[in-house]
Amino acid sequence: MSESAEILEQRIGRLRAAVRQAVLAADKDRASALRRELKQAEQAWEDALAQAETTLPAGLPDSPGTAPSQGPPDGPRTAPASLLPLREQIYQALSLLTVPAAPKLLATVHEAFFASTFPTAKVTSLKRDEERSFRTAPFARPYYVCAALTADLLAPARGLLAVSTWPMERRVIGPLSPRVDFLSAAIQVAAAVERLPSPVPAASRLLWRFAASIPGAAQDAARMDPRQIAQAAEAELQVHQSADSETRRAAAMRARAQLDDAEQLFGTRLGAAAQRVGHMAGRGGQGRGE
Amino acid sequence: MTGTEAWLARLRGRALPVRHNARTIAALAGNPGCARRAVLDAAGADKHRLAAYTGFPAPFGLSRFAITRGNAFEAQVKASGAAELLRILREHLSLPIPEASYDDLSEVGGNASPELRHARTRGLLARAVTHPAEAGTMFDHPLLTLRVGGRAAYLEPDLIAFQLGGQFRVIEVKSFPVVDGRADGDKVAAAAIQSAVYVLALRDALAEQGIPPEAVSHETILICPENFSNRPVAASLDVRKQLTVLRRQLSRLARIEDLLAQLPPGLTFDLDPDDAGVPRRRPAELAEALRQVEARYAPECLNTCEMCLFCRDEARGGTAALGREVRDDLGGVEHVATALRLARGTSVPERGSELAEAADLLRTAARLRADALGEAV
Amino acid sequence: MSTLTALARALAAERGAAQRCCAVRHVHVSERPLVFIPLALAGEAGAPLAAMIGDRPQDARLLTVPEPRDRDQRFAFAAEFADIVLEHIGRYLTREETVNAREPRVRFADAPQLLLPNPAGVTFTRLLGRSTRFRRIEGPYAVPENVPLLGRWLTFFAERAEVPPSSLTLPMTQALAMHWATGQSALEDLNLGALLGWIDPPPGLTGAQAAARAEDPVRCPPAGPATDPTFDNEVLEPRLLAVRTARATGGGRAGQRAKDALADALASQLAPIWTLMWRAVELLRALPPGAHVSSRWHADKDAFTWHAGQIRDGGPPQPRRDSAVSAARRLAGLEKTQAEYAAQRAFDDPLVMAEYRMTGEAFAGTVTAAEPDRVDVTGRRKVLRPRVTVETGDAVLAAPGVVLTSPTRPSQQARVVSVAPAGDRTAVLLELRGGMGRALTPEPGSVPEPGEAVCYATFGNGFQRLPDFPAPEDTPWTHGGPPQPYVPSDDDARETWS
Amino acid sequence: MVMTSAAELAAGATEEILDGLATAERGVVVDSPPGAGKSTLVVAAASRLAGAGEPVMVIAQTNEQVDDLSSRLAADCPELRIGRLSASDYVPSPRIARHPNVTVTTSAADLAGCPVVTGTAHKWALVREASWPWAIVDEAYQMRSDLLLRVAGRFGRALFVGDPGQLDPFSVVQTDRWTGLTWDPMQSAVAVLLRHNPDVAVRRLPVSWRLPEPAAELVSEAFYPFTGFRSGSRAEQRRMTFTAASFGQNACDLSLETAARTGWALHELPARHTVRTDEGAVAACAALTARLLQRGPVIYSERAEAGAPVTADRIAVGTAHRDQAQAIRARLRAGGLAGVTVDTANSLQGREFDVVIVLHPLSGRRDATAFHLEAGRLCVLTSRHRHACIVVARAGIPELLDAHPSAEPVHLNVPVKFPDGWEANQSVMARLQPWKVRAP
Question: What is the pTM (predicted TM-score) of this model?
Fold first, then answer.
């Protein structure tokens, strides 16, 4: 080691001030160069400390062999990470909900009912892997974590995941579908909560998040009846269902007719073809319940 | 390209025009009397960069914590087909249960190009007015445009347009809290004027299709976290005042020619970048170019304008730098040194001249101050 | 703002140093004020990040919240903070004094004083009070015992800050700006470092230079509660992340190290402000106090005694918002104290009085003639009504009939009899009443003598009665009828703090 | 379309208001534009209610206003016994003293037999216990919510009458502690009433008997954009002529003649940033007043078809600040002119003159403040006259308004006040342009 920890510390202090000065001066290049330098200095400092500590008598154990050093998720209320592969966790959660859902919701569902959660940041690469795998060897796996498709252009719906074995009608998303799927998910979550042998706070919190946005579902979080929530969700579902189903059926027919296998699972993307715009805008309105 | 556009392009130089958003347009109402700001904004110049390059970087930045919190709150409100928002709209506006559709306009068929998004936005909005029964209810991330200084600017949207009975309302999600029904008045004011920008842009979009302005309500909806929780709560904002102010400032910006005509020919704020993009122009020279356009500095600029420290430095020695009120109390005299000469009586203006009355006022003040402190001013 | 303070600002700008705009101190400064510098996490509603607190310069206590978004840690912070605040308050709950008013009463002999860097600090205090005072100490969602109590005291402090003449809670920028005019704008005066730079620059720097230096957030951290964004992004975020990572991997020595690093970083932001705050206290103490400062502090002691009684007697926490009746009553109180405060400051301070002389609401001059023994015989009984003539160079707005008051003889009324030019000056004939004893000849010194320098103002320092308002249960239909009485509910206790 | 005459329109509205009293559950609010016969309505309502056997308390804001209403009521209904509540130091003015049917007393208990009792709001606030089935609150937009709170326990139902376009009540206390509360004590009595009782009907008087036609148009559009009103007189009914001709054409004469011809003049001085008591503007106000009196103005109207001279007591000069009024008064005194009213907008509220000269609040300002921009201030100043109004201002006000930054904080749950001062100022300046006279 060429520098002592103390000198390193001073250097880190100076560098940190310099980074802030560079940011204040709107000098992005200098700021990132300095940040790199800072990172190196910090690493050197960590190393120096680690070295110093190994020579000290052991005080507190540093890492008593707990969970793998995976980055923590979004909140302080951290559930342990699961040992299952990510795609299986997502599959579990999706199968519980039975409708396309966003990664964040899936992570919460998994935490509530499978006692572990996953970092949502990794989902993007999972989706890419699934598509690559399918394109290399179609239908080689029993299921794929795939996209939900927009009903109008059959493009991947932003931020939604689905399961390849689901019928196309369930995987296409029209304007009313987010609401319909929310209500369907609420019914499934209520049922799952009812099945729990003893109350799980994370599950109750999740159920309340659904119940709070459904008319007549529950007064407050302390007094929730899963059956009443399911009934309320069912009641609102009745209002939207036929219009939504119609849109989805029509879109699913188009998808099956127009798209190849991979596109049916992962959607088709629109090029920046401006001439198609007028056509599209019209079609956006077409699928609605009539 | 018109003469004005060419002129503005030359002022901007090789830099790309800065993208406008509701915030930057709202800022136009912040100090409308400032020619420097008007010219830089009309030209789409990067004020932040220019100010920093002359050695006066803007004193504001954004904390990542604030950004994260803002994004997280917005995502929460819009999650699951904007389920939480729907709850609020049902409670706040008695939205009927069947009105629950949600269109995300942030992409068109997986493509996020502004042209596509704008075209689709317009299509859907117009349809919503003409066929309200079968059109959508919530439109997330509609991409709108507004003419700023003769150029159409895309507005980076962070709003939801909400349609009920053929009338639209603008919904803005902000992450500052409403505690016991009260929120920071300046933050609400900023939200109100930004909402007004969207109302204006929505009205413009519909007007092109012959739909009257009443199709967009002047009552907008502000969604904020309630008290110390993450629970969203809604408040109505009447933005009629903000609309008037904006319309007036935008129309003045459209008449930027008058300001341009007073500028020396050949003036540019180009940084003269080399092939690697490194500026070669001397900062002092750029500063000189900026000084060719008159500024109207007031301390309030410190909260709103990227050029503020540059202008403040330039305004040193002027009474305006001490505050509008102070200048007024000093009889409107422009320079500190002049005011003090008048106060001390070392400069006595002619009777009836512009400064005569101010001199009387200042001499009295100096006499009273000396009297109370027992020492000459 | 007035022409006189504007002139002081102009002088400060010219000289590069702050100028006095008061001749005396108008705020009370406690012997042992409680200095509180809070830092909040950007983007969150009243989320404490750290604080430095203490009642002596050498006793700075640093409190930090290693995970500011964690409710439990926030309450742990609140509990630790409460211990310090309540201990400090407790010191004032021991000594009492008897007030000899018409109805003698007992109050605490002194009161605590809370000093914050700026008005935003007061807002933060109010929010912290609001988020803690409704909590419960038992049942579900229980918090440590002292947390709701802290909330009530913080709310009390924040509310006193709204009362202009009160010194119980002082935002330091406001206290300093009241006494010194700087060569920058009022907006820039909100930066404690810059303001102090003008008033008390380090050796070798002018005030203007010191202020400019204080604006660099890297060298001189802002006085909170908002932290500098580059600090957040470049220093705080990595350290918070390190604490979290360490915790996820089991804490231990790495966890302690990460927490220490975080505390160091936060201390680096707070310590310079701590120094500034105590320097400001010294500067204020060095000013001679105005004559009415102590009587206003007595009112603060009364308020403190009353609030301590509320808590002792098991009263409810302060409501979220004022009811119709309490709002109206509070407004009446504020209007009354504000008027009194303005008059008192003018009477205590020739420089403040000069502002009224500027506008013609007061004038100063010399007595040129006096009839001290003049007796008015026109009424039913003879009354002593001396007359004096005052010549002044000031503008005189007061018309005949107007009653004036003089700071040196506040209990005496001076009615304007006539106003006449006297050369380039103005002669004002005044008729005096009261404050001269009971006999038909005035007590010595009670009537100004020729040659005496005097000052008269159109406003007095007299006592005003507070208006009566209906009882809350009699709130009329025009104001929404009687309000629902406050009943503490589970919702209050549960309210998320995230 | 059938053209309704102003008189029919006004009578219809008044009748509707009076008829509506019987069925009003809680009360009625009547918005009255300047000079629309507010006092007449109050007197009519009081006598109607008293006639129906319902005792009425009449609440006004100043002793002057109480005396005014009491004497009109006493004269209109000589049979009606009227109690005049007063403070102990009140000396009855001659116009009260001459009515035998008015009893003046300091105690409400002495007035048990009076069907109508009048008093200032502050006096009423001291009355305990007793209550009246009806109250009439005059100048209710100038009364503060906290004062209403103190008197509202005394009545069951109420008629609130006032001009929403005039100055709002204010407080020296600056706090946003109560913003957004429906019972914010700093808002007006009408505001608090309506926020708690949204079902209370708001009616309006549609005709201004004071303002001449051109004034009614401008004031209505700038300050009453949503409700509007019309003039009770036709342009040709209101005329002003001068008995003395002008010698040559100086700016004062031009302005006077423009105002005599059109009802308006903008007497524009050269652009200059000035101190508040701008000597040039002060001198111009004084010169216009002096010249007006010299020219021997005669007015013709529905009231004076044969013409009547305009005397000094029928002329007012209005300013924004007290020191400006002071300076103009001193200038008039130095010129030997007496009897002309010179006062601030606050003091001119509710008063009426034949000719009014206004020193524009924004004249010579470099920056506008909320005070200068307040719509009510300009509205009061430009709506006091029966014949002509001359606005004195430095050039540059439209530019000042354009450069005005809009940075006012916005509060949740606070109804937006219309018209906005900035917009109303713009509108007034734009409308005065045709009547501009450039003065040196």
Answer: 0.91
| Alpha-carbon span C393 to C354, nearest angstrom | 13
D interface mutation test: which of B241, B325, B328 has the most D CBs within 10 A? B241
Which of helix, strand or coil describes residue D387? strand
Indicate if C217 and C107 belong to the same structural domain. Answer: yes
Q: Do C36 and C172 have their domain in common? A: yes
Q: Is residue C339 part of a domain?
A: no
* Alpha-carbon distance values, D54 to B272, D22, D47, D51, D125 (Å): 86, 10, 10, 7, 21
Distance from CA of C18 to the nearest CA of A (A): 28
**Distance (Å) from the C-alpha of residue A61 to the closest C-alpha of chain B?**
32
Q: With a CB-CB cutoff of 8 Å, which residues 381-410 of chain C face chain D?
A: 397
Task: Detail the DSSP E strand segments found in B136-272.
Answer: 138-140, 144-148, 151-155, 159-164, 167-173, 219-225, 232-238
Give CA–CA dist B242/A92, Å, rounded: 51
State the total domains in chain C.
2
Cβ–Cβ below 8 Å for C328 and D146: yes
Residues of C in contact with A20 (CB under 8 A): 217-218, 228, 230-231, 234-235
C-alpha distances out from residue D144 to C348, D156, D192, Å: 33, 19, 9
* DSSP H helices in D316-381: 322-334, 345-348, 370-373, 375-381
Residue at C338 is within a domain: no
Question: Strand (E) positions, chain A?
Answer: 145-150, 156-163, 172-173
The separation between CA D234 and the C-alpha centre of its own chain, rounded to angstroms, equals 21
Range of the structural domain that residue C448 is part of: 347-457
Predicted confidence at residue A59, as pLDDT, reads 38
In a domain, C481, yes or no: no
Query: Is D34 in contact with D206 (CB distance < 8 Å)?
Result: no
In a domain, C474, yes or no: no
Of the partner residues B83, B103, B110, the one whose CB lies closest to the CB of residue A213: B83
- Please indicate whether, in this complex, the C-beta atoms of C496 and B228 are within 8 angstroms of each other: yes
C351 and C297, same domain (yes or no): no
- Residue D409 buriedness (CB in 10 A; 0-12 / 13-18 / 19+): middle
CB neighbours of C289 closer than 8 A, spacing ≥ 6? C24, C25, C28
B189 near C CB under 8 A: no
Domain borders along chain A are 5-52, 81-270
Structure confidence at residue C67 as a pLDDT band (50, 70, 90)? confident
pLDDT by residue (tens digit) across B135-177?
788 999 888 888 877 677 888 677 778 888 788 999 999 999 9
Neighbours of D113 (CB within 10 A): 9
Q: Are residues C115 and C194 in the same domain?
A: yes
Is C352 in the same domain as C434?
Answer: yes
Say which of A74, A175, A278 has its CB closest to residue B101: A175
Identify the CA nearest to C29 among candidates C180, C177, C192, C167. C167
Q: Closest to A63 (Cβ–Cβ): which among C228, C231, C249?
A: C249
Q: CA torsion angle for B365, B370, B376, B377 (degrees, to 10)?
A: -30
Cβ atoms within 10 Å of B169's Cβ, excluding its own: 21
Could you tell me if C102 and C201 lie in one domain? Answer: yes
Residues C68-117: tens digit of each pLDDT:
888 888 889 999 999 999 999 999 999 999 998 788 889 999 999 999 99
Q: Give chains near D: 3+ CB pairs under 8 A.
A: B, C
What is the overall mean pLDDT for chain C? 92
Nearest by CB to C331, which of D146, D158, D192? D146
Q: Which chains contact B through at least 3 pairs of Cβ atoms less than 8 Å apart? A: A, C, D
Taking CB atoms and an 8 Å limit, are C233 and B331 in contact across chains?
A: no
Burial of B134 (0-12, 13-18, 19+ CB in 10 A): middle
- The verdict on C253 and C355 lying in the same domain is no
CB C249 to CB A66 under 8 A?
Answer: yes
Same domain, C301 and C366: no
